[in-house]
Amino acid sequence: xxxxLILDDRATNRAIYARLASVIEENVSAELFGDPLDxxxxxxxxxxxxxxxxxKMPGMDGAxxxxxxxxxxxxxxxxxxxxxxxxDRGFRMRALDAGATDFLQSPIDHFELVTRARNLLALGRxxxxxxxxxxxxxxxxxxxxxxxxxxxxxxALGLARILDSLPAQVSAADREGRCIYANAALAAxxxxxxxxxxxxxxxxxxxxxxxxxxxxxxxxxxASGAPLPPYREEAEGCELLTSKAPLRxxxxxxxxxxxxxxxxxxxxxx
Length: 270
Hints:
- By secondary structure, this protein is of the alpha/beta class.
- It folds into 2 domains: 2-108, Rossmann fold; 140-266, Beta-Lactamase.
- It contains 10 helices and 10 strands.
- The chain has a 5-stranded parallel beta sheet, sandwiched between helices. It has a 5-stranded antiparallel beta sheet with strand order 7-6-10-9-8, with helices on both faces.
- It is globular and about 55 Å long.
- The two termini are 37 Å apart.
């Protein structure tokens, strides 16, 4: 069952978001709050899969709320969708800089909110599955090929078949930035077969500019050992919602970074 926290100081908006949450998928549960401090107190002892928060609220805005939520245990990897009535890039950047995953302009399009929320929940689950897989693989026998050990520990062929069925672009890069896995969706973006991308650098997989950003994000994950909150980025002809998670070997050492990107749709104006 998915748990969604909805934060808005207006009761009417909370009621609307709660109704929309019920159609995102089956068995969704929503907790509604009008006060950011009450929401943060609840989050200290409860699990949540998605946060939807207003930006402008008395006492604490959505950016500050997001920043405090990210500092809570378990809050770093949960998608946060910020709703703002401000048609100003500065407000959006404040929310994103605080750790927001995505944002919507108010008044919201109901269909767009449901679609964005569904994608964010899917992204959060994929990040959790990657973390769970590494935990399950901790007792596996090490592979003679160190860079492929995390994948082989899970049964690489079966895992590859599962990942190839996803509409998301999934890849894994070792500590030197070399690709050790790419799924079919990612390979299709560069006109190659997945096996042909093994050993490639980030520039070949993602292009020069995005590849440089991806490598910098990978180094952050390798240094901290923690996943990065999902973030939006531009690719060729579309926007992507990207997350990164550490991949550990049998000894618990982070040996690679898994990158998952879900297409959000065409870029504005294209």
